[in-house]
Write a structure and sequence with these properties.
Blueprint (H helix, E strand, L loop, with lengths): L1 H5 E2 L2 E2 L4 H10 L10 H7 L5 H13 L3 E3 L3 H9 L3 E3 L1 H10 L7 H9 L6 H10 L6 H5 L1
Parallel strand pairs: 3-4
Antiparallel strand pairs: 1-2
Helix pairs in contact: 3-4
């Protein structure tokens, strides 16, 4: 997964890749190696190697929860009894814990960089983050 997020042809390319690289360098995050590459290979199909390795790595290292956005990857995680959240859930958690002031600018940046989410999910997230009024408030 690290290679998928941080590296592409040996250079940092993805939004936030530098932050992930620094988190690993500082010891805040760890890179783990999935040992059973045969199992990873058998699970690949609709999923990229990185997504399968996140699930299989969690199983190998007995990590109960994973960060996944892809619907099929979440289904695989769930089939193996893993909890999961996605990027949006992580942003909401960060706001609730006071680690970020607002979700909206980060969501806007993500969508501009190619992160896909429906308009209805975007609005629901902003409402959950208390950064938008409810639909009922607009109808009153």
């Amino acid at each position: 997964m690290y290679d998928e997020v941080v590296l592409a042809s040996g250079r940092v390319t993805n939004p936030g890749a530098g932050s992930v690289e620094e988190a690993v360098r500082s010891g805040w995050m760890q890179r783990l190696t999935v040992h059973d590459q045969d199992a990873v290979q058998r699970q690949m199909g609709r999923l990229h190697r990185g997504e399968v390795e996140v699930v299989w790595g969690a199983l190998e290292y007995r990590i109960p929860a994973v960060l996944l956005d892809d619907r099929y990857a979440r289904r695989l995680a769930s089939a193996y009894g893993l909890e999961y959240t996605g990027t949006v859930g992580l942003l909401l958690l960060a706001k609730r814990r006071g680690m970020i002031d607002a979700v909206r600018p980060l969501l806007t940046h993500l969508t501009r960089e190619g992160f896909r989410m429906s308009v209805s999910l975007y609005q629901a997230v902003l409402q959950s983050a208390q950064e938008i009024e409810s639909v009922e408030d607009h109808q009153a």
